[in-house]
Design brief:
8 helices, 12 strands, about 240 residues, alpha/beta, Rossmann fold, elongated, Arc Repressor Mutant, subunit A
Length: about 240
């Protein structure tokens, strides 16, 4: 049975970035289209129904924020925003306007690919990989009881998790295959921005790896992405 590839539209005024992303995403099984600005995007939307939009914030004419706001008036199509700005305000505003994720420039296309997969998976909803509505979540050889905050191994033995370990594991389980920076992990687990040069997340990740029985020299489920952060690689399944 042939599966229809997801349609993605890249909106960026840089022709080199458009060409690179369309080619890269096409080689990874997506039907990728491109638009240089809001006008071109709206032209495409008269004949296309995309599964996801990748929108640069800095565009001539209507910027990415305007596009996101306009799209959200009558569509819930997933949107990933790209920004060359280091200003946290851009990220917050984009999320408030309805963006599903954001990525700073310059970026590794592999990270964008991972985020696309994660956003599409969440958008499809109701899939076994969505643990947010389930009490029991399975991953690798483990299960997590979200109500009691206990790890359950293959022998059904339960190990209580501290609040910090549980919260960090929750973040990873809700975002499998998505590269998460240390700053993002800090914000998602603490609810505030990380202090400059803070490396406490590395300590917490190390502790969680030990909880999961990960080898000190080979991390199968929580992998380090050099220069980017961490990615949770195990398949996640909601049991109940």
């Amino acid at each position: 049975m042939t599966t229809t590839p997801a349609t993605l539209i890249v909106v960026d005024d840089d022709p080199e970035i458009r060409e690179l992303l369309v080619d890269y995403l096409g080689r990874h099984g997506y039907r990728a289209l491109a638009a240089e600005d809001a006008e071109a995007l709206h032209g495409l939307l008269t004949s296309e129904t995309p599964d996801l939009l990748i929108v640069d914030i800095m565009l001539p004419g209507d910027d990415g924020f305007t596009i996101c706001r306009d799209i959200r008036r009558d569509s819930d199509v997933p949107i990933i925003m790209l920004t060359a700005s280091a200003d946290e305000t851009d990220r917050i505003l984009g999320l408030e306007l309805g963006a599903d994720d954001y990525l700073g420039k310059p970026f590794n296309p592999r990270e964008l690919l991972a985020r696309i997969k994660a956003v599409l998976r969440r958008a499809r909803g109701g899939s076994p990989a969505d643990p947010s509505r389930a009490r029991l979540v399975a991953f690798g050889a483990w299960r997590l009881d979200r109500m009691t905050r206990e790890l359950i191994d293959e022998r059904d033995e339960r190990t209580p998790l501290s609040g910090a370990d549980f919260q960090l594991l929750q973040v990873f389980l809700e975002r499998p295959e998505q590269v998460l920076s240390r700053e993002a992990l800090y914000e998602l687990t603490r609810g505030r921005s990380a202090p400059p040069l803070d490396r406490s997340i590395d300590v917490h990740v190390c502790r969680l790896r030990q909880r999961l029985g990960e080898d000190a020299h080979y991390h199968q489920m929580i992998r380090t992405v050099r220069g980017a952060g961490y990615v949770f690689t195990a398949r996640v399944e909601a049991l109940t």
